[in-house]
Every structure is written in C-alpha cells, then in structure tokens.
C-alpha cells in the first residue's frame, strides 16, 4: 500500500495508514497485556476478543449505516468561522455515533453476562449519546451549526449524571467517597465526592466533544484512552475491562469510515457518549487520577477554549472587540491555521495519547 500523500496534504502517511498503525498497535498491546495477566486472548473475559469483535463488527456495519445516513440527508453543517479547508466537508453525514456506540455497549453487556456495573456504564453512555443525538438532530433540522440551547443540553446531561450517581450511592460502590492517588494516597471528599462526580461526568463528556473537530481525532484518542483504562481496571473490575475493550474496538471500527478523508462524522451523538463512558468507568473503579492523565489531550483542548474566551473578554475594548490568544480554539484548529495538515495534527495527538497511556500502564 502506498501511504504517500500529495504535497498539499503535507504528510507522508494516509488516513487509512494511520488507522492501520493504530489498530495493529492496540491489537498487539491487547494480546501482550492478556498474556502478562495470564488471560487467553480468545476468551470472552479478555481485552483482545471484545476489542477485535467490536472493531470488525462496527467497521462492517458502517458500510451499511453510512450510506443510510447519506440517504437520510444527515449532512453536517460546517461552521462558517471555522478553518476554510473544512468547508469542503459540508454534507458529510454526521451522528455516526448512532451505529458504533450501541453496538459496543450491547456487546459489552452480553460479553459480561449483563454485569450490573456494565449495564450502568452502558446506560450512562447511551444516555449521553441520546443528548448528543437530540443536539445533532436539531442542527440538521435548523440547518445551522447550533443545536439545542446550551442550557437544555446541560440540563439533560445533569439529569443522566445524577441518575448514575444515585445508582452509585445505592449500589455496592456507595463507599466511594475519596479519590485514589498514586503511592497509596487518597483524597477524602466525603459527601462532596458526589457533586464532584457529577462534574467529572459533565466535564469529560464535553471535553471529548470539543476534541471532535478533525477527521479521526476524537475516535482515535478516545480508543487509546479507553483501552488503557480497561487494562488498568482489569484486575478488580473484569466487566468494566470488557466494556472499555468493546468501546475502544467500536471506536477503531468507526475510524475505518471516519479517518481522513472522513465519510462520516460521529457528531455529538458519539463524542458525548464516549466522554461519558470514560468518566463513568473511572468513577466506578475509583480511577479518577488515571482518567485525568489519560484525558490530557481533552483537558488541553478544553483549556484552550477557556483561555481563548477569557482572553477575548479581558482585552475587549470600547469597540466591543477583543484579542485572540489562539488563531482559533480548540487547539487543533489553531494548529491547522498555523500550517499543520489534519493528518499531522491527528498523528501527533495519537502519539501523545499513546505516551499518556503508557505512563499509566507502566505505573501499575
């Protein structure tokens, strides 16, 4: 396969080549980690089999789902103030999360013998995905880049987050009131843990959503984060390991269609769901510190937006206009406008995500 691109793309690897490298890397890592943990890769309770099954299943379903989304005229509306190179993406089907997130969640529930933990995180994931679907649908109906109001979106997210926290309180995990830290330390929060838990669910979901702005970016970085989180919680929460492996595989299968040049976007339907999946697993397994490290890219993307808005307001003059700290936020758009190709941005972020995952797994 010739992975070389035209000079205009500014990279020496194609979108499918990049996804292939990611898939081989994650698959090899799954087999190695299963071997080190004395798990057989072909067993249901492993990283490898759920990961590969969901990757293949979602990739295959995509060949039917993407044309269906095109037929239903779910073309993405591109923001006019975004990078000009993105205008050619107008009309690409969106809300792709509607086919790969449910497949991975259902597979995880079946594979875990309908473990209560897996059902809970799957419900939260699908709940956040439902909020994203409403937002995506409103964008299509209004034919603008604005979906439901931020207040309504936040209210719906809070409702699902509250329901998940209530389940945590009444379940066997109700003793979780502190944040586990490295070297055996912990940060006790008492009752304050629950408002913090709700904040984590909302923050992670929206941070993942902000990262979804370049072909293959969110899908790949989340696949890496979910995979590492699954390997981390495997000894104590095998059901959650299966869930993370399934969702990671689902992301990889989706990338077959979402890699540059994308044939479909995941939309808020996918990005909000994936953020909820990461946060709910971390809360249930008391792995919030690990989640913070694994979410380094999502955190930086969110901070770039906050700094952009804050700096603009702080420098606003009499004419009502302020200065911009970045050429455009989130950070991936700033890099694009600085001359990076989409593939360079995605490849760099994949490498950083892999490094963060390695740090977490080596610290276990």
Topology:
Elements: H1 15-36, H2 48-71, H3 97-111, H4 116-142, H5 150-170, E1 178-180, E2 186-188, H6 193-211, H7 217-233, H8 238-258, H9 267-284, H10 288-294, H11 296-314, H12 331-337, H13 342-362
Antiparallel strand pairs: 1-2
Helix pairs in contact: 1-7, 2-3, 2-8, 3-4, 3-8, 3-9, 4-5, 4-8, 4-9, 5-6, 6-9, 6-11, 7-8, 7-9, 7-13
Structural write-up:
The chain has one domain (15-289). It has 13 helices and two strands. The protein has 364 residues and is mostly helical. Mean pLDDT is 90; it is low at 1-11. Helix 6 crosses helix 11 (296-314). The chain has helices at 15-36, 48-71, 97-111, 116-142, 150-170, 193-211, 217-233, 238-258, 267-284, 288-294, 296-314, 331-337, 342-362; strands spanning 178-180, 186-188.
* Radius of gyration computed on alpha carbons: 20 Å
Q: Report the order of strands and helices.
A: HHHHHEEHHHHHHHH
Strand arrangement within the widest β-sheet reads 1-2
Q: DSSP strand (E) fraction?
A: under 5%
- Structurally, the number of domains stands at 1
Q: Helical stretch count?
A: 13
Mean pLDDT: 90
* N/C terminus separation: 38 Å
Number of strands: 2
Structural class given helices, strands, pairing? mainly alpha
Shape: globular
List keywords for this structure.
13 helices, disordered N terminus, globular, mainly alpha, single chain, 364 residues, two-stranded antiparallel sheet
């Amino acid at each position: 396969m010739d992975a070389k691109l035209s000079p205009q793309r500014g990279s020496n690897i194609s979108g499918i080549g990049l996804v292939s490298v990611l898939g081989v890397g994650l698959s090899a890592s799954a087999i190695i980690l299963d071997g080190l943990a004395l798990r057989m890769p072909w067993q249901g309770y492993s990283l490898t089999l759920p990961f590969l099954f969901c990757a293949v299943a979602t990739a295959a379903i995509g060949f039917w789902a993407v044309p269906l989304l095109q037929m239903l005229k779910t073309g993405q509306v591109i923001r006019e103030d975004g990078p000009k190179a993105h205008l050619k993406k107008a009309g690409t089907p969106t809300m792709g999360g509607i086919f790969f997130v449910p497949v991975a969640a259902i597979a995880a529930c079946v594979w875990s013998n309908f473990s209560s933990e897996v059902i809970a995180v799957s419900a939260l994931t699908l709940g956040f995905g439902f909020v994203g679907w409403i937002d995506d649908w409103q964008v299509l109906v209004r034919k603008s880049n604005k979906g439901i109001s931020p207040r309504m979106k936040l209210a719906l997210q809070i409702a699902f987050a509250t329901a998940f926290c209530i389940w945590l309180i009444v379940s066997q995990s109700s003793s979780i009131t502190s944040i586990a830290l490295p070297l055996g330390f912990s940060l006790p929060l008492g009752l304050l843990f629950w408002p913090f838990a709700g904040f984590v669910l909302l923050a992670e979901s929206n941070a993942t959503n902000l990262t979804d702005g370049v072909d293959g970016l969110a899908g790949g970085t989340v696949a890496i984060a979910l995979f590492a989180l699954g390997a981390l919680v495997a000894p104590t929460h095998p059901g959650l390991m299966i869930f993370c492996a399934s969702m990671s595989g689902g992301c990889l299968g989706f990338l077959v269609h979402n890699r540059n040049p994308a044939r479909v976007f995941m939309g808020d339907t996918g990005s909000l769901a994936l953020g909820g999946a990461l946060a709910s697993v971390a809360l249930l397994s008391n792995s919030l510190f690990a989640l913070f490290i694994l979410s380094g890219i999502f955190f930086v993307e969110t901070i770039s937006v906050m700094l952009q808005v804050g700096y603009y307001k702080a420098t606003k003059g009499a004419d009502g206009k302020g200065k911009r700290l970045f050429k455009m936020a989130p950070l991936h758009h700033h890099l694009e406008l600085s001359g990076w190709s989409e593939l360079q941005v995605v490849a760099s972020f994949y490498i950083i995500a892999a490094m963060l995952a390695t740090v977490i797994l080596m610290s276990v």
